What we know:
Blueprint: E1 7-11, E2 25-31, H1 41-62, E3 65-71, H2 77-81, E4 93-95, E5 99-103, E6 106-111, H3 126-134, E7 142-145, E8 155-156, E9 164-165, H4 169-178, E10 182-185, E11 193-197, E12 200-204, E13 219-222
Parallel strand pairs: 1-2, 2-3, 3-4, 6-7, 7-10, 10-12
Antiparallel strand pairs: 1-13, 5-6, 8-9, 11-12
Amino acid sequence: MAKNAMRICAVSDMHGNLNFKVPEADLLLIAGDLCPAMHSAASCVHMQQDWLHSAFRFWLLDQPVTEVVAVAGNHDWIWETSPQMIPELNTNFHYLEDDDISILGLKIYGTPVQLPFNDWAFNREEKQIQKYWDNIPEGLDILLLHSPPYGILDESHHSNYPPKRIGSESLLKKIKEVRPNVVVFGHNHGEHGIVEQDGIKYINASLLDERYNMSKEPIIIEI
């Protein structure tokens, strides 16, 4: 490890499943879809409130990490429709919604929005979503998203449907303009992994497969 390197663990798309091991790290990044969910906000915000207050809060206490930074995803209704119901979480948990944070010497910007998918939380049409990407600043160490950029680890591979790219083209354009060092996302369960293009490291940190089985491991990087 390089001198003073930061050890970072990235996860996404747990969907309420906390049965996985987080390696020791300085920083845990969660790229959305933390919570268990159903298909409407009304049917699950109370469930998500209870889960965050109990299972998730106590799980956080046990993780071998110093700080946690997260964005919501399309399953995380409570953050979009009922933020007043979100319980107080651990002091080392930091939620980002179209905002940035400087932490452990790193500058991180996070946003939960993604293109339409079954009319779930934080869905935005391509013509609307551009204004969210416009807020992404330059000079970032990490860009934390739920949405993948178009063409990068964004192809779904569900056995019941033909392969389809679900990333945002305007997001990819913005990333190429502002050039963060690392881009972390989830949403697409079909292409977990890391690729590097033009000096930018892209991480799809989804832990579940297309059938919502826990089949992947958290991704560790050092920067």
